[in-house]
Write a structure and sequence with these properties.
Two copies of one chain form a homodimer.
Chain A lengths: L6 H12 L3 E4 L3 H7 L11 E5 L3 E6 H8 L5 E5 L6 H10 L7 E4 L5 H10 L4 E4 L4 H6 L3 H24 L6 H14 L3 E9 L20 E10 L2 E2 L2 E6 L7 H18 L6 H14 L11 E3 L6 E5 L12 E4 L2 E4 L3 E4 L2 E6 L2 E4 L7
Parallel strand pairs in A: 1-5, 3-4, 5-6
Antiparallel strand pairs in A: 1-2, 2-3, 7-8, 8-9, 8-10, 11-12, 13-16, 14-15, 16-17
Chain lengths: 359, 359
């Protein structure tokens, strides 16, 4: 696990600079990143609350003993009978933020958790964590690279397991189950296993189902797992027998788009420049309308995090950022092709984490 | 799958009665319950929006084609480049709710999704869905009972698999993996598999880990899976060899608390009366301070939903409600015992879904 001990300090430095009085996180990836753990997540409000100088937990009583083993932060406990209001007021008083003017909320936490904070501080302006925790999370260190590389190689193995087992007559779900099993065998939690056969490949977020694989299908596999709190995410295409009409042409265009994006991704470049590069290849080839999503997204403790590579985002890419490059072309009624690699941005360009060739 | 076609109508009836102008749901259990499906969930705002007379989706463009197969609702699509703002404004105009005064938000959805709605309707009062969708979800029908019973029997089989395989020298995670595998073999998604051995059993939400099972351990297993969009949840205790000191006494108290709660749970009774009954048994036996959580929670498309059985809740129980009864006693440094069954409340009392005896 990466050391998290100095992350609170780094965060509080940013909070001072940005005049954020209080930052609140629910039990999830953000808390995991900041504190190295998170308590059980359910409907009971559980918040890590960070002020510019202190930090404490709003903690459901039944999770207190278990969480005490993982953190030294002060707990403000509440029982099912009492509810969280009194404990939360005590926490705000203890952190000296009852007059907070700027609060930053974990965008991924439950809406009712966010409401608890906002209702207690009605005069505060609300922002989310993109410029604070998001800013820090984007800039990854060696220990994180190591975990991401390990996750990528596990995803490679899971992809190969699906590939090796796949044959005409199997269902998408059967292939997905083989991939899931490989993740599990490698001590990794399967996070998503999209298998889209034939026409289904034209839906970028196809819900893997009972569709049977046929000869001539292009099968999109977009899979990811999680180990040691970090993630993997990779997309490859398998073709069963002879490729469908036009497949090779479209495949070559998507591959060219990947390579254009890889060339464009350099430290100091804005995120949209990478999207522009991939999109130009696909648009120039006449398929612009079929590239219906951004070129990529950051990855780390979450599968999708900053930086996002869209046609408009002005985020300046820096060495140490980790993101996907994954252009695609989706032809309704025919097939879809997306090729995705996760890269670490190095001084001289992207380092691809997967060892699997894209073809 | 239960028919969902009349649920929107029922919901709109409640919205009219309660003067809720707009209800918004994220992709999750609530949307699944209302519409019978939900699109892929990620950081892209995706909302099912219900007015008193109409309904529509705010839909990320890349999920549109796939979702079109599952619903006839109108889509207001947005691309990664455009962002959701314009499409959401168009949706509010189309639903004629730009002057909404009361909005109900899915409490489980991401905080940034909720903010999108609230920022677009700054004059509206916000509530969550407890009195609208929550009210409807509590009152389950025969098709839901059937799915919940099927899920309960699968959980029984998974519990037995863990029980049969468990032996001294295995780790909690190994036992959990066997339980997970059984769920998967039965075409069911494992949702949680808490295995707490010995001292760990004293943490109600113990994070299953590398602890090795020893002779004389009481092992708490709290597991649940999901099939056909419904859930299971059951807790049993296995004792490896000779029980720890005091185990049989405490086990008998918890069992008596379960039975007291079962006797108290009748249509027309308030939720807290059930909690009171279980808590009285445990308190009278001198263990009140070690029963650190509520007696139960509703269950359906979510593992935890209304009605909650706490010491304060005034919800009146009705026939057809489905909830857990799960008192526990947690003795730090010694062991923990929780016994949990899911019941359907019938006219003459609770019907237990599991076929496994509690001892």
């Amino acid at each position: 696990m990466p050391r998290t001990s100095n992350r609170i300090e780094q965060l509080q430095g940013l909070m001072k600079a940005q005049h954020i009085d209080l930052l609140a996180l629910g039990p999830g990836a953000q808390m995991q990143w900041l504190l190295g753990f998170h308590p059980h997540a359910d409907e009971r409000p559980c918040l890590a609350c960070i002020s510019q100088t202190r930090a404490a937990f709003l903690m459901p009583a039944l999770n207190a003993a278990g969480s005490r083993e993982a953190t030294n932060l002060n707990f403000f406990e509440w029982s099912d009978a009492e509810g969280p209001q009194v404990a939360f007021t005590d926490l705000l008083t203890d952190l000296n933020v009852t007059n907070a003017r700027q609060i930053a909320l974990d965008e991924t936490m439950r809406a009712d958790f966010a409401a608890l904070v906002q209702d207690a501080l009605p005069a505060a302006k609300r922002q989310f964590t993109a410029s604070s925790i998001g800013h820090l999370r984007m800039r990854k260190d060696e220990s994180e690279f190591t975990l991401l590389k390990a996750n990528a190689l596990i995803a490679d193995a899971a992809m190969m397991a699906g590939w090796d087992a796949m044959k005409v007559g199997m269902s998408e779900l059967e292939v997905a189950e083989i991939i899931r099993k490989k993740f599990i065998d490698l001590d990794t939690k399967p996070l998503f296993t999209i298998v889209g056969a034939g026409l289904n490949g034209a839906y970028p977020h196809h819900q893997t189902g009972e569709t049977i694989l046929k000869a001539g299908d292009a099968v999109v596999m977009d899979i990811g797992g999680g180990k040691s709190s970090y993630s993997s995410d990779i997309t490859r295409i398998a073709v069963l027998g002879e490729a469908p009409d036009g497949y090779h042409e479209v495949q070559a265009i998507v591959e060219a788009a990947v390579q254009a994006a890889m060339l464009a991704a350099r430290p100091g470049v804005k995120a949209h420049v990478v999207d522009d590069a991939a999109r130009k290849v696909i648009t120039d080839a006449g398929y612009g309308q079929y590239f219906v999503h951004r070129t990529g997204h950051g990855m780390g403790v979450e599968i999708h995090e900053q930086p996002y590579l869209t046609s408009v985002l002005q985020t300046v890419l820096e060495t140490g950022m980790v993101f996907s490059i994954e252009p695609g072309i989706y032809l309704p009624g025919r097939f879809g092709i997306r090729l995705e690699d996760i890269v670490i941005l190095r001084a001289d360009g992207p380092e691809i984490l997967s060892d699997l060739p894209r073809d």
